[in-house]
Amino acid sequence: QVQLQESGGGPVQSGGSLKLSCAASGDTRCMAWFRQAPGKESEGVAAIDRDGVTYADSVKGRFTISRENGKATAHLQMNSLKPEDTASYYCATSTRLYCGLDSGRYNYWGQGTQVTVSS
Predict the structure, then answer these.
(1) Do the beta carbons of residue 79 and residue 63 sit within 8 Å?
(2) Cα–Cα distance between 81 and 61 in angstroms, integer?
(3) Other CB atoms closer than 10 Å to residue 83's CB: what's the count?
(4) What percent of the chain has pLDDT over 90?
(5) From CA 65, how far away is CA 67, in angstroms rounded?
(6) What is the DSSP string of 71-114?
(7) What is the pLDDT of residues 80-118, one digit of tens each?
(8) How many other CB atoms are found less than 10 A from the CB of residue 39?
(9) Average pLDDT, the chain
(10) Residue 1 pLDDT > 90
(11) Contact (Cβ atoms closer than 8 angstroms) between residue 90 and residue 109
(12) Residue 57 class from Cβ within 10 Å (0-12 exposed, 13-18 middle, 19+ buried)?
């Protein structure tokens, strides 16, 4: 059983930046971030797998996902934050090599970290 530890959420003003981190306790292949705002469906934000990185259109050019070499740790650098980015952000990992932003391909999920962007 892989456990995920997320950190880095919090309040921020519009235009500001935050960096989320996710540390997994075991072997992982794909790593990704999803988010869910109140009353909305879950949305894939960014993923990194054997094919490279994938971003949702809504965050392209503003968010960057990265993974530490040789470690089961991923980061999500979020710049130029907007109020519509407000959501609970969840780290997800998979033993698969190719996952993209398909939530069904992820085995393990974190508890979530809240990001609140004020205007």
Answers:
(1) yes
(2) 11
(3) 11
(4) 90
(5) 7
(6) SSEEEEEE-S--GGG-EEEEEEEESSS--TT-GGG--EE---EE
(7) 999 999 999 999 999 999 999 999 999 999 999 999 999
(8) 5
(9) 95
(10) no
(11) yes
(12) exposed
pLDDT of residue 59: 98
Burial annotation 16-25 (CB, 10 A radius, 16+ → b, else e): eebebbbbbe
* H or E element that contains 64: strand 63-67
The DSSP string of 26-62 is S--SEEEEEEE-TTS--EEEEEEETTEEEE-TTTTTT
The Cα–Cα gap between 58 and 41 comes to 14
> Which tokens in the block code for residue 10?
């919090």
